[in-house]
Amino acid sequence: MFRFKQFIIQQDRTAMKVCTDACVLGAYADVTGSQPAGQVKRILDIGTGTGLLALMAAQRNQTAQIDAVEVDEAAVGQAQENVVASPFAERVHMWHGRIQDFRPTNRYDRILTNPPFYTNHLRSPDSAVNRALHTDELSFPELIEAVVRLMEPDGQWWVLLPPFEAEKLALLANQAGLHAFKQLLVRHNGQKPVFRVITGFSFEERDLHEASLMLYEPGKPDGFSENRSVETYTSEFRTLLREFYLIF
User: Fold this and answer.
1) ∠ Cα 151 156 160 (to 5°)
2) Cys staple from 132: which of 6, 15, 25, 55, with CB 3.0 to 4.6 Å?
3) SS3 at position 216
4) What is the pTM assigned to this prediction?
5) Could you tell me if residue 248 is inside a domain?
6) Structure confidence at residue 36 (pLDDT)
7) Any idea of its EC number (predicted)?
8) Contact criterion met (CB below 8 Å) for 53 and 114
């Protein structure tokens, strides 16, 4: 179980658990638009897992309708329970199935994705873990095709990946008419390399704005230490997650 300020994520029946980088995506992606909250009316979470990104989006945008698609049956059931137990149950809707087969009536202003990215790695004996981590059931071309089909002409797609996969996805997306306009490079600390990249895509071609985020202060216990404290995290990270994490 992972407790946030406004909702709780139960995760005992899902392959992918709550992780810091997914929380950063949920807090960083633009889900409201440049005008007051409500301009973004429809949000799609592809591969919702526990429902984390959908619930974070619902908390940040208090009027949007949010659809969350998940192929794993157990994960859908648990995500639905998390949604029902939240204050956002009337606005977040779960769909069980493949995004390749998802055919909604309307397109979306924002699409959020924390996709599988392993290709040739060793397999887990757990089929649910394989679905969550490996691209067999949702390749990058299939994901891009779904985004192009489902996103509004002035919409945005926000995706979280490791650096190598983020570069690969950006090249494929560009060929399909999706252009990266914003990137957040995430490091554990200043001495560590970038381990995750959050990229915002749109159909409009514009200059790429790049920013960085360090999770932990240099010289202090990292996130894997039992001695971590509030002061372990950088002020930028605390500010970004303040509306979600209980410790902030």
Assistant:
1) 110
2) 15
3) strand
4) 0.89
5) no
6) 55
7) 2.1.1.223
8) yes
Alpha carbon distance 91, 227 (integer Å):
39
Q: Is residue 122 part of a domain?
A: yes
Residue closest to 153 by CA, chosen among 99, 108, 207: 108
DSSP per residue, 16-49? SPP-HHHHHHHHHS--S-SSSTTS--EEEEES-T
Give pLDDT tens digits for 226-247: 555 677 999 999 999 999 999 9
pLDDT of residue 134: 40
Q: Collect the ranges in the chain with pLDDT lower than 70.
A: 34-38, 117-136, 220-229
pLDDT at 35: 58
Interior angle at CA 135, CA 81 and CA 99, nearest 5: 50
Looking up residue 70, the CATH number of its domain turns out to be 3.40.50.150
Q: Residue 72's pLDDT is what?
A: 94
Judging by DSSP bridges, how do beta strands 194-202 and 179-187 pair with one another? antiparallel
In 10 A of CB 84, how many CB atoms? 12
Q: Are strands 209-214 and 8-9 parallel, antiparallel or unpaired?
A: unpaired
CB neighbours of 223 closer than 8 A, spacing ≥ 6?
A: 20, 188, 215, 216, 232
> CA 14, 98, 55 angle in degrees (round to 5)?
50
Give the Cα separation of 240 and 162 in Å (integer): 20
